[in-house]
DNA sequence: TTGTACGCGTTATCAA
DNA sequence: TTGATAACGCGTACAA
């Protein structure tokens, strides 16, 4: 036999009811008598019918149950950032409440044959970050009338944003250091652009920072230490923080008594660099992080850091998506970090 | 106006051609005269039509362009494993060749409202790992006639598997240590079950290991060091390796001269434990890892390890999926690790 | 509570 | 090279 899959009409016929009745049995959207339900279920079992075909259902309903997450980078890179991972956790949870799942998409237009924003059956999309490509993606989605939410970026009018008070939180950390008596402070920033190599930021380079998160956090630090030298790391990694820390500690002039790192991973690297140089943290060098993630292998240090509600951010994005799918309009949200004092900051010695 | 979205028939009418012709213009599956193509494209532009509705297309074609990846854990946990991340990279790449994207799904049946294997419009699914839940998932997918590929697990007859020569690779590492002259060796295994707490494995617990990867690697080590004591870590994390390392170094009896860790992260932790105890690696203690991933923050150590082709594994899974969707049958694949000598192993001192 | 009728937006097939 | 037609499998008003 040619083994055509059973459809809901087959089941209905087998059960001796109308197709619509069978449909209702599976969707549960209307009351059905127990007897009928059982007949339908039995028939389905006999025919090996496992439920409505999602493809047909999604055409009929106009919903596919799929929310795309558009990433700027390869998965491997994107998910090496613990904050991203946590956000995805929250997002998954958030969209699950509308019965949706998360489809991973790269915003790489020159990838031929790849599933794209134009060809995937999306109900909505979440963009993370914001760059030139993101803007293209936004155009496409707008043309398709697909609801969009942006995390840490600007999607333009009508696009809900999920953001963090990066500047304020970083200022708080800087104030903490100032309050402890630190005056000579160095800053390690996140990667500032894709092309740029790690290194000291001069005034011009600093104005040129395209990565909003980096710029905002830098501004927060500058609110307290306007003249602190800043070193741009290549990425948010321990190894990059180590390199930055080495550069900072090797620089001529008086050694800083504290380093403000724009991420916990960078901070961990800076601590390594300090240890390597024979300095004690926090006695000889205070270090602050950002994010409040668990840095595997950093114990016994507990970073003084700004804890960002990453999971909540993701969940909020999911909720926003849910709201837009419901037809209501989702509001933008600004999340607040929590200052957490660890054992990596203290008054400068002497 | 109620702003109904333009359909392909609208475009066809506007362009003065048949709907089927317009369809061909967008799919490019048949030759169309340039003049006609241009008329259709212009009409589309005028109407703000951005291309065929993926939902309708997927019903008609019987393909949604979506491959599900079924994970056992929360995303945050799953992606904290660098090997998983790399595999996902390869998988994404592999399935992209059939124009498909990756949908993240948890195999959590008690999550209500969540999109599931039954309700998502999948063309195929990739299972990672293998546990009780996985078997359920397999059942569902088989009933739905959805092609499945399993990575590091057994999907039963007819289900292509992507595997690693864990035992052989681990044996090779162990032999390397034996060749260097090591006789007293301890083993740190991956987490062996969800419930089990970290701790020494007795013979019974060892027989009970459900996680195949852990069991296979352990067997490989045992091929060379039948009596080496084994400590099961709680998870593949530096911190867990640290804990294991402490336990091993604190144990009574003669201290081992080498530790075989079942992952690079665990190995990194063991190295930390050694440093903490004032031991030098590799002089006082040799340590081997497994996976060959980049462990952020481990420099200047370069682990002696077995490099597994994680990206290739993922890509192979993607290719297998592609093949099955093409109607051909995909073969199971066994990947081989490459021994890589770093600076964490040497002859035992004295 | 059940059944009837229709359309969701495409695309494959075949004939012209 | 183009056009007409018929599914694809389902959900939902509406009437019975």
Features:
350 residues, Rossmann fold, 5-stranded mixed beta sheet, DNA-binding, homodimer, 13 strands, 434 Repressor (Amino-terminal Domain), alpha/beta, 13 helices, 6-stranded parallel beta sheet, 42% helix
Any overview of this molecule?
2 copies of one chain form a homodimer. Chain A contains 13 helices and 13 strands. Chain A has 350 residues and is α/β, with parallel strands linked by helices. The first copy, chain A, has 3 domains: 8-52, 434 Repressor (Amino-terminal Domain) (Orthogonal Bundle); 66-164 and 310-335, Response regulator (Rossmann fold); 166-308, Rossmann fold (3-Layer(aba) Sandwich), CATH 3.40.50. In chain A, helix 12 (264-276) links the parallel strand 9 and strand 10 (286-288). In chain A, helix 1 (8-15) packs across helix 2 (19-27), helix 1 crosses helix 3 and helix 6 runs parallel beside helix 13. The relative contact order of chain A is 0.13.
Topology overview:
The structure is a homodimer of 350-residue chains.
Chain A lengths: L7 H8 L3 H9 L6 H14 L6 H8 L4 E6 L3 H4 L3 H15 L4 E6 L17 E5 L3 H13 L3 E4 L9 E4 L1 H15 L4 E5 L9 E2 L2 H5 L4 H13 L5 E3 L5 H13 L7 E4 L2 H13 L9 E3 L16 E3 L2 H16 L7 E3 L2 E3 L10
Parallel strand pairs in A: 1-2, 1-3, 3-4, 4-5, 5-12, 6-8, 6-9, 9-10
Antiparallel strand pairs in A: 7-8, 11-13
Helix pairs in contact in A: 1-2, 1-3, 6-13, 8-10, 11-12
The structure holds a DNA duplex (16 and 16 nucleotides).
